[in-house]
Amino acid sequence: MSGSVIRRIFAGKIRPIGERLLRAAVVGLLVAVPVLSATDSADSLPADFPVEMGHFFTQTGIGLGTGCSIRNDPRPGNRIEAFWDEYQRLGGVESFGYPISTVFLGSDLSKHQLTQRALLRWNRLTARLEIADLFEILHDAGLDGDLETMGVPRPEVSGVESDPDELPQVRLGWLQNQVLRDFYFKNPKS
Fold it and tell me: Which of 121, 117, 138 is nearest to 6 (CA)?
């Protein structure tokens, strides 16, 4: 995706550093570029290690001790945005892979961090980490055509697109199916 496409998605709502990180995230997720591992020159360093309020991973760095961390973020008023605690609770590396970005501010003004398998978003209302729907973000930005040229099919039409207020109820209705409900609420660690 070109820089102009990424700029159309967020229309200047994120800082330039966030734009660069999002561009890397989109390319990494959609094209599935192999992630580089640490080089032989960094053999003396541990692959990952604890840091204050989190953990640092070199597995997705380019060697020489580079990589990304996942950390809890203390906030004013004794609140903590517990990215690291939530990442572990939801299955950690086994569920999401290693982090491949630092935390960045998305267009919805929520903090995001990209891992090998998911775009994670901190939900300030629930004080929980959740998986952000990257394809919904790209759809809302009007990029279905761009995605289609990369082999990603357009979203299915469910018949309620004309009334977006009905869509959440339709999707929640799917949870009436016991098989879907059990899968949806299954803990990824089990």
Answer: 138
Q: Which candidate, 22, 7, 10, places its Cα nearest to that of 103?
A: 22
Output the six-digit token pair for 166.
Answer: 């009905």
Higher pLDDT, 189 or 18: 189
Which residues have a Cβ under 8 Å from the Cβ of 183 and sit 6 or more positions away?
none
Distance between CA atoms of residues 41 and 127, nearest Å: 40
Which residue(s) pair with 74 in the sheet? 80
Q: Is the dihedral of CA 140, 142, 148, 153 positive or negative?
A: positive
Tens of pLDDT along 101-151? 999 888 888 899 999 999 999 998 999 999 998 888 888 888 999 999 998
* C-alpha–C-alpha distance, residues 189 and 184, integer Å: 13
Question: Which token pair is 17?
Answer: 């550093």
C-alpha gyration radius of the chain: 18
User: The tokens of 136 are what?
Assistant: 């919904």
Cβ atoms within 10 Å, residue 41: 10
Q: What confidence score (pLDDT) does residue 188 get? A: 67
Q: Which neighbouring-strand residues pair with 75?
A: 79
DSSP string computed for 44-85: TS-SEEEETTEEEE-TTS-STT--EEEE-EEETTTEEE-HHH
pTM: 0.60
